[in-house]
TrEMBL record:
This is 2-(Hydroxymethyl)glutarate dehydrogenase. It comes from Paraburkholderia saeva. Gene3D superfamilies: N-(1-d-carboxylethyl)-l-norvaline Dehydrogenase, domain 2, NAD(P)-binding Rossmann-like Domain. Its EC number is 1.1.1.291. The active site is at residue 170. PANTHER family: 3-HYDROXYISOBUTYRATE DEHYDROGENASE-LIKE 1, MITOCHONDRIAL-RELATED. Residues 3-161 form the 6-phosphogluconate dehydrogenase NADP-binding domain. The lineage of its organism: Bacteria, Pseudomonadati, Pseudomonadota, Betaproteobacteria, Burkholderiales. Keywords: NAD, Oxidoreductase. InterPro entries: 6-PGluconate_DH-like_C_sf, 6PGD_dom2, 6PGDH_NADP-bd, HIBADH-like_NADP-bd, HIBADH-related, NAD(P)-bd_dom_sf.
């Protein structure tokens, strides 16, 4: 299949590489010359004319940073989709709001395109290993057409509805992920002030009933005081805003999420915005009279 990949960031890179390895012809578009150079290094074709690439694509896969970029490229008056051929499939993998996704759906329908919402959950390493979880929603025809492509990067696929449900599912999971990491920071401070060596405490937490693959990864990083970003404080704050806005629209109280958003705001204000969101543990430690 002839595929155009829009957005070759940290997650897009390994995902696109796996789609190419699965036998598809992948063309890459990204506004960053540095990211285009990475794509060339992987022997992926970098398009010079986005309009022509869209017109030739059987499927378009987007991995974009936020609502504003997704709306500009996929839903605005100058949307790249205006050149898409009828019957082409759009697979949108970004973490964006329900409202933004619904606007993209209208544009795709106007172009007579299939539209599959397919946000992903997992790390860059999981993407490289084809081990991401993908939540999918959309018309049944789009789901079935997109499933073989999505399977290139996802070991787990969950179809959750026929419209925007995948967006809600991704935000719900991210709500739990960020509250879990914030609670890890609180537990770390509690144990440390209670006289337990950090390694002993974190190993015990990882082995406890609350232990999970994600928690173990973050506990190991906290033990090593490694805040190298897999997903930054700034990025998590963006997701938390989407979560709280979406919850407000659905009249759902997000009590824990609102508190965590304030912790992440404090982390960003403290100059930790470009560190992994695990850096919220530094803020919690500071409030506890500790220093990491």
């Amino acid at each position: 299949m002839n595929i155009l990949w829009l957005g070759f960031g940290k997650m897009g890179e390994p995902m696109a590489a796996r789609v190419a390895a699965a036998g598809h012809v992948v063309h890459v578009f990204d506004v960053s010359e540095a990211r285009r150079a990475v794509a060339r290094g992987l022997n992926l074709d970098v398009v010079t004319s986005l309009d022509d690439a869209v017109a030739d694509a059987d499927a378009i896969i987007s991995s974009l940073p936020n609502d504003a970029v997704a709306l500009h490229i996929l839903a605005g008056e100058e949307s790249a989709l205006r050149y898409a051929k009828p019957g082409a499939l759009l697979i949108e993998t970004s973490t964006i709001s329900v409202a933004a996704s619904a606007a993209i759906a209208k544009r795709a329908a106007a172009q007579e395109m299939g539209y599959l919402r397919a946000p992903v959950s997992g790390s860059v390493a999981a993407a490289a290993n084809g081990a991401l979880t993908t939540f999918m929603s959309g018309p049944e025809a789009a789901v079935e057409r997109g499933r073989p492509i999505v399977s290139a990067w996802a070991s787990t696929i969950r179809v959750v509805g026929d419209a925007e449900q995948a967006r809600v599912m991704k935000l719900a999971v991210n709500l739990m992920v960020t509250t879990l990491v914030a609670s890890l920071g609180e537990a770390y401070a509690l144990c440390t002030k209670g006289g337990i060596e950090p390694k002993v405490a974190l190993d015990a937490i990882s082995a406890s009933a609350i232990g999970s693959p994600h928690l173990k990864v973050k506990a190991d990083a906290l033990e090593r005081l490694d805040f190298t970003p897999a997903f930054t404080v700034v990025q998590m704050r963006k997701d938390l805003r989407l979560i709280t806005d979406g919850a407000r629209d659905l009249t759902v109280p997000i009590l824990l999420g609102t508190a965590v958003e304030q912790i992440m705001a404090a982390a960003e204000a403290s100059g930790l915005g470009d560190e992994d969101y695990l850096a919220c543990a530094k803020v919690i430690a500071g409030l506890s009279g500790l220093k990491i």
